[in-house]
Amino acid sequence: MKRSTEMTSAIRMKHQNIHSPRFEELAVVLPEYITHPELRQMAQRVQQAMFQDGVVSCHTHNKTLEHEGEIGRVKAILDHLIKTPNSDAAVLVLITNEPQPKMLLTRRAAHLSSHAGEVSFAGGKHDEGDGNNVVTALREACEETALPPNKAQIVGQLPTQISKKGLEVRPIVALVEPPVTYVPELGEIARIFWGDFKKIITEPTCDYVLPYTMGGQTIHIKTPCWKIDGEVVWGLTGRILASLLEVGFDRQIEWYYQPVEEQSQLAGNK
Known about the structure:
- The protein has helices at about 35-50, 60-65, 70-85, 135-145, 195-200, 235-250, 265-270; strands at about 1-5, 10-15, 25-30, 90-95, 100-110, 120, 120-125, 150-155, 160, 170-175, 190-195, 205-215, 215-230, 230-235, 260.
- By secondary structure, the chain is of the alpha+beta class.
- It has one domain (about 1-195): Nucleoside Triphosphate Pyrophosphohydrolase (Alpha-Beta Complex).
- The strands form 3 sheets. Strands 1, 2, 3, 4, 7, 8, 9 and 10 form an 8-stranded mixed sheet that branches. Strands 12, 13, 14 and 15 form a 4-stranded antiparallel sheet that branches.
- α2 (about 60-65) packs antiparallel against α3.
- The longest helix has 15 residues, at about 70-85.
- The radius of gyration is 19 Å and the shape is globular.
- The N and C termini lie far apart (about 50 Å).
- Mean pLDDT is about 90; it is low at about 5 and about 55-60.
């Protein structure tokens, strides 16, 4: 075990990963070493909520936190993440740790067969060689944005979400210390952009109106979204973001897909 000299003082710990040796050492960040108040609150609540899903008992977790200090806490978090069953896919919810934090987002390439042209977190399908959800998220983020895996400081995980194709997706939350150079993998990613974290957690959502076809008939529906740097964040990515706000900040966002009248279509996307 060793402590990073970076601003968050992340603690690096080895775990066995016979399939992916480059991911044998992962960095976990503890809330008390995060100076930004909103990021610190988010980390506290994400880590607390992780142990309520039954993978590791709350009793074991609390005992570890009380009696084993920092190393024990990091080990408990890492063990929990590794023991969590693998999902079909994982995404990395990456936020910069700086005075004005930003959230990493991407727009997927228009030619892709799934979620083409939509905004997403970096991530993708689980590979048998990954070993766990954290490695899936880090590997995919590295492939899509050139994020060095050792730069990500793991906070924890959020509840899974189901994609429109029925895949179970596990969000992994992490911090990163700037500067880092990001390069989109143009076969999959059309654009990398950043959302102001303060605005994301405080500003209200708006309605996004889009066509929906079922049984040969097309109607228009509205759903919550964020508009960030000229892009629309909705769907699976929007639901993951809403989950982060609920877990980290007690902000409840009702998620809906509602039909709209024709005269409301233009107004909804302004």
